[in-house]
Write a structure and sequence with these properties.
Structural class of chain A: alpha+beta
Distance between the termini of chain A: 30 Å
Number of strands of chain B: 2
Oligomer: heterodimer
Distance between the termini of chain B: 27 Å
CATH architecture of the domain at 30-175 in chain A: Sandwich
Strand order of the largest sheet of chain A: 4-3-7-8
Largest interface: A-B, 44 and 54 residues
Strand content of chain B: under 5%
Order of helices and strands of chain B: HHEEHHHHHHHHH
CATH architecture of chain B: Orthogonal Bundle
Number of domains of chain B: 1
Radius of gyration of chain A: 26 Å
Number of strands of chain A: 9
Low-confidence stretches of chain A: 1-8, 11-27, 117-145
Chain lengths: 209, 265
């Protein structure tokens, strides 16, 4: 009976597919991201099941591997790093057991007011804490004392905060595996082995002759 | 179980790639065209099974099924796993392209070992030596559970009764109970030889894969003892589940379709 041949693996596959649709507990992969907000870089490291990597050392280096500094995540996997130079920031955290989180904040995501890589200093006058609190800003955000630039900085900070929420959602969305991806993967596998069996089957009669 | 990009040093990556390539090449040379559908279907089974991640204990775990693949496919487990791992890396970012070779060897090599061991155990079921080997493997697993119990107890003293410690302890106890009960039934002759070897093969392949992951990490500079403890203890739940699953599958196959076990060489 030709049907018998496919019954057992087919059953396994059907069972597994059933389980796949029933469970939503994806995990294992590392999600890490950094969101620059002025000269402050906020980042988070966690696993795609929602667990965050708390108390992990994050090493920051530039593009050539020179160490710029290091920071540690808090219990919720968040960390902040104050950039002092406008260069690419490479973040790397070792979560042990083969889990490495690494990501880059490029120089053009950081404010132009920071020192460039060549050392040209453009110092920023930071508004005092009272002003920024009155303006409804996070006290750590840099603000420039002059009026028009002040508004621009405020706008940047507010927009940046809203966008960073969206970025987080987008990062989570990217991790979501959809059912059609899984079906597509199965299709690819069967296709690859189908082509292989076609090629092998074509070669076989030649061998026999 | 899938090591990600950037965790291993270059010599380990290149060595793993070469080993995986030669394994795939050797198995393709042996492969007959009529075996290919079977290889493809089991490759798809692995692809789907290892996508289901269950957050358990220290990290999340997932089925690997390399024991089952090994017993059914033998050397053909190499191409089956390599293709599925490649697609997982490309589609979902599990593992990665540079570590593909290392991951394939870590998962497929235990499968091939289990293939030789379990096929021999199944064919030589009446031999005294096979019984001795089965006893020996049982003893190794028994010592392993004791060691894992100590490791968990030390963790309990540090962390207290956290969620991960509880889950791992429960699954360790389950594994020990299932193993002891299976061995008891096997000695009494109630459990079939196929089921017992299936259980041994299923859990042994996971254990070997965990050891190989720890070795890959150790060769790249991580401390072996720590890495091994972490990986092995975290995979006790999988060892228990896969042992049972493989036992049931192999027992079913020997009853319903025994030629499946003798098809691929």
């Amino acid at each position: 009976m030709p049907f018998d041949k496919t019954k057992l693996p087919g059953l396994c596959l059907a069972l597994l597919l059933g389980v796949t649709t029933a469970t939503s507990a994806w995990a294992h992969k590392i999600i890490s991201a950094a969101y620059p907000d002025g000269d402050k870089i906020e980042g988070e490291i966690g696993f795609s099941n929602g667990d965050m990597a708390g108390d992990v050392l994050v090493v920051v280096s530039d593009a050539d591997g020179n160490k710029l500094g290091e920071t540690t995540t808090d219990e919720d996997g968040f960390f902040t790093f104050i950039a002092t130079a406008r260069v690419d920031h490479h973040f790397r955290a070792d979560l042990s057991a083969g889990h490495i989180a690494s990501f880059v904040v490029t120089a053009d995501e950081l404010p132009e007011t920071l020192n460039g890589a060549d050392g040209t200093a453009k110092q920023v006058a930071v508004a005092d804490a009272g002003d920024s609190a009155a303006a409804g800003m996070a006290p750590t955000s840099p603000a420039v004392a002059s009026g028009t630039i002040m508004d621009e900085e405020l706008l940047k900070s507010v927009v940046g905060k809203e966008v960073s929420k969206l970025r987080k959602e987008l990062a989570l969305f990217k991790e979501e595996r959809r059912f059609q991806d899984i079906l597509g993967g199965i299709g690819y596998i069967l296709g690859i082995f189908g082509i292989a069996s076609f090629l092998l089957g074509r070669r076989k009669p030649v061998k026999d002759q | 179980m899938h090591i990600v990009d950037g965790a291993l040093s270059n010599p380990v990556l290149i060595g793993g790639g070469l080993l995986a390539a030669s394994g795939v090449a050797y198995s393709l040379k042996k492969l007959e065209p009529e075996d290919l559908p079977r290889v493809g279907v089991l490759s798809a089974v692995f692809f789907v099974a290892s996508l289901i991640h269950v957050p358990l204990g220290f990290s999340s775990v997932h089925l690997i099924l390399n024991g089952l693949l090994g017993i059914i496919l033998g050397w053909a487990a190499f191409p089956a796993l390599a293709v599925a791992l490649l697609l997982q890396a490309v589609f979902f970012g599990f593992g990665g392209l540079t570590v593909l070779g290392v991951n394939a060897v870590n998962i497929a090599f235990p499968a091939v070992l289990v293939y030789y061991l379990c096929r021999w155990g199944l064919s030589a079921e009446k031999h005294l030596l096979a019984k001795r080997v089965a006893d020996g493997l049982f003893g190794v697993f028994f010592l392993l559970t004791i060691w894992a119990g100590f490791a968990l107890y030390q963790l309990y003293q540090i962390e207290g009764g956290s969620w991960s410690v509880t889950v791992n302890s429960v699954s360790l106890i389950l594994f020990a109970v299932v193993m002891a009960y299976g061995y008891f039934l096997y000695r009494r002759g109630t459990l079939s030889v196929a089921g017992f070897w299936g259980f041994l093969g299923g859990s042994l392949s996971i254990f070997l894969t965990a050891v190989m992951v720890a070795i890959s990490l150790a060769l790249s500079g991580e401390e072996f003892g720590k890495a091994a403890e972490f990986v092995i203890v975290a995979h006790f739940p999988v060892m228990a589940v896969e042992g049972l699953l493989t036992a049931a599958t192999i027992q079913l196959i020997t009853k319903v379709k025994p030629e499946l076990l003798h098809a691929v060489r």
